[in-house]
Write a structure and sequence with these properties.
The protein is an all-beta fold. The protein has strands spanning about 1-5, 10, 15-25, 35-40, 45-50, 60, 70-75, 80-85, 90-100, 115, 120-125. The strands form two sheets. Strands 2, 4, 5, 6, 9, 10 and 11 form a seven-stranded mixed β-sheet that branches. Strand 7 and strand 8 (about 80-85) form a beta hairpin.
Length: about 120
Amino acid sequence: VQLQASGGGLVQPGGSLRLSCAASGGTLRYYAIGWFRQAPGKEREGVSCISSGDDGSTYVVDSVKGRFTVSRDNVKNTVYLQMNSLKPEDTAIYYCATDAVYGSTCPPARAYSYWGQGTQVTVSS
């Protein structure tokens, strides 16, 4: 499965962006899809995840809870990360990834083996 993240850009603090993770070579609703980010000089961190299945459970890290929402459009075979109330500390390259394991729930970060190319999000006034 190949993933491609898009939708990043420059936004002012308090603004919103919606990232997309489109897939080819696989059906996203069969797999867990995670969103990760890496800021300059920092380690990569998991941001959010949606489990496989039509009613896949979702997870967001505490630092973005209440601001970020993950969802999936099965028709478009795309996973989204809606980011609201953005803060400068959200600035990073954002990646989507999957373990490509059928029926998976959100696995540990080390299990993700298929990664998109990343999209830059910059929050600045």
